């Protein structure tokens, strides 16, 4: 890879959980990976009264409180959007029009229409654009993809994906923008189910063509409180409650173009499951299984192992031969959630430096958005749920 001393100057929009995570990634990436261009954390855009302090503690040169003052600045090369979904389209379209490289958090947008406009603009723009489906950068999932692409699982028959969290299982867990349909688009479905959809399509190299879904909101309203665990709590603790306008949980079956059957579940109220982003894929010649709560491990089954020795083997995905692992610690020492975002930043910069597309493109992310829309349409349309006949006796 060529080496240039011209820095890539970054504006991160959003100072919440994701903005801080991306800032950490941008700072760390050049310390462990060869990027080909220096990185400068130029400006953090946020809305916090102590934003200047937050920006400097995260390593930014400056702080701004209006993204419109930043996206077309000549001294910014990358616009990194880490704000709620209702802002993505406007920000990304402005940044693309200004010729910037754009990294945008998932889900890409709040509607198919917005996502498609973003994908069209990205395809026509000079910059590189990418959507932050960060789990693609988990070494174990990248290793699984390699196995599947090499044909080691044979014909793919089952895709079984669950993304289970429990931070909303308490009815008094505070209200945040993630519970507001206008801001977040949807609930568990778009927030975490979108990851499963993207992972499933990316791992298999296949696409979902039809779904049958059901969704439910178990807790109708939630207390308004100040900052909730960095996930964007709003207002004061005055006893007021706001209506939840998104799903707590979604479940759907799916058909893939090449014939596989999919079963998906996304929930933020599965008590005891903190961040169980799981996927299992069964093919004619083998299977893989993964659970993010054990992110350094991949289970792999080969149908051609000798009889009497068959079983799911547990691979520690920490050898230098594994994706991304050579840059890190000795085998067996493991990585964490933040490493996904570091790898994402590395892949994005490599695409910029190498003049290639960065995957997932906005077009790939728009394809996920179409599945999200199909799931909601199916769930809102009662007739797709066939009633079970009651026993007449
Ligand atoms: C909150 O539900 C959340 O932070 C998601 O928004 C992320 O995408 C996921 O990685 C972890 O959970």
How would you describe what is shown here?
- With 393 residues, the chain is α/β, with parallel strands linked by helices.
- The chain folds into two domains: 8-135, NAD(P)-binding Rossmann-like Domain (Rossmann fold), CATH 3.40.50.720; 139-294 and 296-335, 2-Layer Sandwich (Dihydrodipicolinate Reductase, domain 2), CATH 3.30.360.10.
- Helices cover 29% and strands 23% of the residues.
- The chain has helices at 17-32, 51-58, 88-97, 112-124, 139-149, 181-184, 188-204, 337-354, 362-379; strands spanning 8-13, 39-45, 62-64, 78-81, 101-105, 129-132, 156-164, 208-216, 221-223, 241-243, 249-256, 261-267, 276-283, 286-291, 297-302, 313-316.
- The protein has an eight-stranded mixed beta sheet with strand order 8-11-12-7-13-14-15-16. Strands 3-2-1-4-5-6 form a six-stranded parallel beta sheet, sandwiched between helices. The protein has a two-stranded antiparallel sheet with strand order 9-10.
- Strand 4, helix 3 and strand 5 (101-105) form a beta-alpha-beta unit.
- The radius of gyration is 21 Å and the shape is globular.
- The N and C termini lie far apart (74 Å).
Provide tags for this entry.
alpha/beta; 9 helices; 2 domains; Dihydrodipicolinate Reductase, domain 2; binds alpha-L-sorbopyranose
């Amino acid at each position: 890879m060529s080496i240039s001393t011209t820095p890539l100057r970054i504006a991160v929009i959003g100072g919440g959980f994701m903005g801080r995570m991306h800032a950490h990634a941008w700072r760390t990436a050049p310390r462990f990976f060869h990027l080909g261009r220096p990185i400068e954390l130029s400006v953090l855009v946020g809305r916090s009264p102590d934003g200047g302090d937050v920006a400097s503690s995260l390593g930014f040169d400056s702080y701004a409180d209006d993204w419109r003052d930043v996206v077309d600045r000549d001294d910014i090369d990358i616009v990194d959007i880490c704000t709620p979904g209702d802002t993505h389209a406007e920000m990304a379209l402005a940044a693309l029009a200004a010729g910037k490289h754009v990294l945008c958090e998932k889900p890409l947008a709040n509607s198919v229409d917005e996502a498609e406009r973003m994908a069209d603009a990205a395809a026509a723009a000079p910059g590189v654009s990418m959507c932050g489906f960060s789990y693609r950068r988990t070494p174990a999932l990248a290793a699984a993809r390699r196995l599947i692409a090499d044909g080691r699982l044979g014909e793919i028959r089952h895709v079984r994906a669950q993304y289970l969290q429990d931070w909303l299982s308490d009815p008094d867990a505070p209200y945040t923008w993630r519970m507001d349909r206008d801001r977040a688009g949807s609930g568990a479905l778009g927030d975490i189910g979108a990851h499963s959809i993207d992972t499933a399509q990316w791992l298999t190299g296949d696409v979902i063509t039809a779904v049958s879904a059901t969704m439910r909101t178990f807790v109708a309203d939630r207390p308004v409180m100040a900052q909730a665990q960095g996930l964007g709590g709003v207002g004061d603790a005055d006893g007021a409650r706001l209506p939840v306008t998104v799903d707590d949980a979604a479940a759907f079956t799916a058909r893939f173009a090449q014939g596989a059957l999919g079963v998906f579940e996304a929930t933020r109220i599965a008590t005891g499951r903190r961040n169980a982003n799981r996927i299992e894929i069964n093919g004619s010649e083998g299977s893989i299984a993964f659970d993010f709560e054990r992110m350094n491990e991949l289970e792999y089954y080969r149908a051609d192992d000798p009889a009497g020795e068959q079983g799911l083997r547990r691979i520690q995905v920490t050898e230098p031969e594994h994706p991304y692992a050579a840059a890190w610690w000795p085998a067996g020492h493991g990585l964490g959630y933040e490493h996904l975002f570091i790898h994402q930043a590395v892949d994005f910069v490599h695409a910029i430096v190498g003049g290639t597309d960065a995957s997932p493109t906005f077009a790939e992310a728009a394809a996920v958005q179409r599945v999200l829309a199909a799931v909601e349409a199916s769930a809102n349309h009662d007739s797709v749920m066939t009633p079970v006949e009651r026993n007449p006796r």
